[in-house]
Backbone:
């Protein structure tokens, strides 16, 4: 690949970058809230159609498995579906959904005990669903194989479950004469709250990330939650960059070191640049640096 084959894209003004970042945050929050609502509704449908048990603990166990697993599947599938990564989608199905199902089952059974101790009410329901949310967050961390994602998932899941549980119980009581409607509205609210809180907590607490500034994945944000985050066309890459033929399968990687972050080039120097400068081997990067991989431009952000 020669230097002349790659046309350098123009730089975005600072105001345009801020607008793109704000729009990306809103889209992530909306999409995850929608995926959570859909996952909760599918889980509720499976529970209503398939579970016939007399014991309240058995019902809660099965409800947690089905609703938690469905929520975990939908929420973990969001990123892979948006990127078109089949391998990551299979990992979300094989790891994230079962982990969320187990967490959901444990959460609802434990929640039944919590409700009994608190004698029901808004707080009892909120605390019980918070445990379910922790299970969903656990599934996200395991699917991504990342400690940072695990921590953010647990915080967002617990908070989302708590707030969703409050709204769930309020709706259930408010629509008491319409049990099925109240249950459906409450579960959908719970799922949407979980997805929304997972997105907002990640946006508030993330330490380092990159955002794509142009091309098919414009606006896409990738959390840098691993010591080494690979970048390229490879579906296994932590930062999957698709739709640009000038990007290689293993194009570069961002490494987290005791001295900060650095970009390591795995392609030709002409195909990898930081702030317009060709990278032969490795280059330290800091907040706001512009990274060019082929014709794809990203901005590195760090708190």
Residues:
């Amino acid at each position: 690949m020669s230097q002349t084959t790659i046309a350098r894209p123009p730089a975005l003004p600072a105001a345009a970058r801020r607008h793109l970042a704000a729009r990306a945050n809103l889209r992530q929050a909306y999409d995850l809230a929608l995926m959570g609502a859909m996952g909760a509704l599918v889980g509720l449908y499976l529970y209503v159609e398939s579970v016939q048990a007399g014991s309240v603990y058995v019902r809660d166990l099965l409800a947690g498995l089905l609703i938690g697993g469905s929520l975990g599947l939908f929420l973990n599938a969001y990123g892979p579906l948006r990127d078109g990564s089949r391998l990551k989608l299979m990992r979300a199905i094989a790891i994230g959904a079962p982990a969320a199902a187990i967490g959901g089952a444990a959460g609802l059974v434990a929640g039944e005990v919590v409700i009994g101790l608190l004698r029901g009410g808004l707080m009892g329901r909120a605390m019980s669903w918070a445990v379910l949310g922790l299970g969903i967050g656990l599934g996200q961390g395991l699917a991504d194989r990342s400690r940072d994602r695990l921590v953010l998932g647990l915080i967002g899941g617990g908070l989302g479950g708590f707030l969703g549980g409050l709204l769930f119980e309020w709706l259930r009581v408010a629509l008491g004469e319409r049990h099925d409607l109240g249950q459906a509205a409450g579960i959908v609210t719970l799922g949407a709250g979980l997805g929304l809180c997972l997105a907002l907590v990640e946006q508030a607490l993330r330490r380092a990330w990159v955002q794509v500034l142009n091309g098919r994945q414009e606006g896409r944000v990738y959390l840098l939650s691993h010591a080494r985050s690979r970048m390229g066309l490879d579906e296994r890459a932590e930062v999957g960059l698709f739709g640009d033929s000038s990007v290689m399968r293993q194009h570069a990687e961002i490494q987290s070191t005791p001295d900060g972050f650095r970009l390591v080039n795995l392609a030709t120097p002409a195909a990898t640049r930081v702030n317009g400068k060709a990278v032969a081997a490795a280059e330290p990067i800091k907040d706001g640096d512009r990274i060019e991989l082929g014709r794809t431009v990203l901005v590195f952000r760090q708190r």
About this structure: Helices lie at 14-50, 56-83, 86-117, 121-144, 147-174, 179-205. The chain has a mean pLDDT of 84.
